[in-house]
Amino acid sequence: MNVVVHPSGIKGNIRAAAGKSSMQRACAAALLKSGTTRIINPGMSNDDLAAIDVIQKLGATIQYDAVTGDLLITSNGVRPISNEMNCGESGLGIRMFSPLAALSQVPLKINGTGSLLTRPMHFFDEVFPKLGVAIQSNEGKLPLQIQGPLKPADIEIDGSLSSQFLTGLLMAYGAAEADGVAIKVNDLKSKPYIDLTLQVMKHFGWEVQNENYAIFRFTKNTAALINDITYEVEGDWSGAAFLLVAGAIAGNITVEGLDVCSTQADKAILQALSDSGCALSIQDKKIEIGPLPLKAFHFNATDCPDLFPPLVALASYCEGTTVIEGVNRLAHKESNRGLTLQEEFGKLGVEIQLQDDLMMVKGVAGGAVKGGKVHSRHDHRIAMACAVAALKASNAVEIEDADAINKSYPNFYEHLEILGATVKK
């Protein structure tokens, strides 16, 4: 699907979409917990739907409350009803659910679709055998053939590629009632996402001792005694980052449903927006934002690499050259986001230089990005970044494969339209 976004002023109120990082972790915890979990404000992105499908394959049953729309998940632990599960294109899904699936002794095939088929999974080849799990991968890529059960043990892992692998192990160890063992982690990235994992685990009854993100210790607890649980999915800072940048560029808007005390890493967008000089008012559960003369900023996105696309859209309208650190985290996303941002924003007249771990974005002279045709590269965040940049462009921007947004934020274009943008599908 192609979408054309015309230069538009925006205004009004919008509610942030449900956070898929929170939603997927809640689904995983509900699978592991015996009893029924009520999830309030459940997400409906492709990644969320993939997580729901996976937990059903692993033995959970689901239904939606016809009155409230809440998601009810009933489970008695990991008890696969299928010999294959598919995580779609969800990087978090494949990395989190694989250790959970390994809790069962049933042989399972773990697969994905799209760009996930090319992303490295060597981590499991190296770690699973140390935990008693037999594994065969496709030369370090999907599909994986595994057979557990996973047996918690003292291990040491590399945390530099993604914190999502650690998330899966933490949850698996908790569900396996690990006692007196520890996971040692070297060079952990995206620590805020581990904070979110630990927060969800605690909500469901599992306590983990975090020693400065270097060692995670487990002692057996009584989590299994807690049956019925209610969990509310918070607003998604990752998706809301695009709305906030849109407000900073193109109009005065209010984004509601965001917790400023959230552990979500992408809450850091507030610091970049503040540094850019936009009009910004941070209140309880809502953010008011509007345009002022924008200036270049320096931002370290190592722990929040998903912010690169909205940061590039913001930097495109800033006077001067913005420097963003953390480019090395972008190689194994839905696209190679560093190169993709450079190439697609280059079509809009924005010069981006990549140097080691740095990205330099030169704000467009005169303050107007060019119109033109870009391609999402099947990457939801690239599509959204280009759409936001189009709001103050000199001409319309046509986005090819624009429905890539369905992975995380299927209502994104509708939300832009609610705020007054002209979007043609």
Q: Describe it for me?
A:
By secondary structure, this protein is of the alpha/beta class. It folds into two domains: about 5-15 and about 235-425, UDP-n-acetylglucosamine1-carboxyvinyl-transferase, Chain (Alpha-beta prism), CATH 3.65.10; about 20-230, UDP-n-acetylglucosamine1-carboxyvinyl-transferase, Chain (Alpha-beta prism), CATH 3.65.10.10. Helices cover about 30% and strands about 25% of the residues. The protein contains twelve helices and 24 strands. Strand 16 (about 280-285) and strand 17 form a beta hairpin. It starts with a strand and ends with a strand. The mean pLDDT is about 95.
Annotation keywords:
single chain; 425 residues; alpha/beta; UDP-n-acetylglucosamine1-carboxyvinyl-transferase, Chain; 4-stranded mixed beta sheet; 24 strands; globular
Poorly predicted tracts of residues: none
Strand order of the largest sheet: 22-23-1-24
CATH topology of the largest domain: UDP-n-acetylglucosamine1-carboxyvinyl-transferase, Chain
Beta-strand proportion: 15-25%
**How many beta-strand segments?**
24
